[in-house]
Amino acid sequence: MEIIRLEAVKKVYQTGDIACEALRGVSLEIEMGSFVSIVGRSGSGKSTLMHVSAGLDSVTEGRVFIDGEDISRYSEKALCNHRNKKTGFIFQSFFLEPAYSVFDNISMPLVIAGMSPKLRRNRVAEVSEAVGIAHKLSVPSGRLSGGEKQRVAIARAIVHQPPIVFADEPCGNLDSENSGMVMDLLEQLHRMGTTVVLVTHNAEDAKRANRMIKLRDGRVESDEVC
Ligand SMILES: Nc1ncnc2c1ncn2[C@@H]1O[C@H](COP(=O)(O)OP(=O)(O)OP(=O)(O)O)[C@@H](O)[C@H]1O
Ligand SMILES: [Mg+2]
């Protein structure tokens, strides 16, 4: 069964008089539990595709179905609720709250979900152990190294056990050792049943997925099994 379905999705960014067509009619389906990589040149629409699929941005035309629900029709409140239940997002530049502790960064989705402090502590302990950052829970995230920051960001993306994890160039700011660590964690997530969608410029990393979708100028250029 598919967990993500895009139907003729168009996205136009309007900046003053200039319109940029970032997605020009993308239709695709992603199976539940699959590991998909999105590749293509800079500016081809990869991040835009991730953002509209994750409900972080709206579409101009077309529809986005997640788990059979048309999220392109959702209100902002419904969308927030949807993101908190269904998705985790890992960014190239981490997007952590630098003054907040590692614990507070990781537990944010659980606070939004209204989980009790006791359950939150247990869950954060479990997930921070799994990604190897449990020894830094009280440190402000701004004082961590890049590799450590991405461990925190991954923990935050999976702490609420979402069925889909989007990772937009998660290794883009990391050295090869830390990139390997991030890829291993994504693979592990996939093995545990999470649907993983990865944007990458690295051909080796892209091939670790089951399927590779290549974008070109806002359209799907190729879509193949790895
Ligand atoms: N917020 C925005 N406002 C205006 N134009 C935008 C905005 N975001 C993206 N674009 C434009 O949309 C197109 C697709 O951008 P997108 O970020 O999706 O590309 P990308 O494939 O992720 O590129 P990269 O590999 O460099 O991250 C580009 O031409 C970009 O300039
Ligand atoms: Mg991008």
Describe it for me?
- The longest helix is centred in the last third of the chain and has 16 residues, at 176-191.
- Helices cover 35% and strands 30% of the residues.
- It starts with a strand and ends with a strand.
- It has one domain (2-225): Rossmann fold (3-Layer(aba) Sandwich).
- It is built from seven helices and ten strands.
- It is α/β, with parallel strands linked by helices.
- The strands form two sheets. The protein has a six-stranded mixed beta sheet with strand order 6-7-8-3-9-10, sandwiched between helices. The chain has a four-stranded antiparallel beta sheet with strand order 2-1-4-5, with helices on one face.
- The structure holds adenosine-5'-triphosphate and magnesium ion.
- Residues 13, 15, 20, 22, 40, 42-48 line the site of adenosine-5'-triphosphate.
How do the strands and helices of this protein lay out in sequence?
Elements: E1 2-15, E2 18-31, E3 35-39, H1 46-54, E4 61-66, E5 69-70, H2 76-86, E6 87-90, H3 102-112, H4 117-131, H5 146-158, E7 164-168, H6 176-191, E8 195-199, H7 203-207, E9 211-216, E10 219-225
Parallel strand pairs: 3-8, 3-9, 6-7, 7-8
Antiparallel strand pairs: 1-2, 1-4, 4-5, 9-10
Bound molecules: adenosine-5'-triphosphate and magnesium ion (MG).
Residues 13, 15, 20, 22, 40, 42-48 line the site of adenosine-5'-triphosphate.
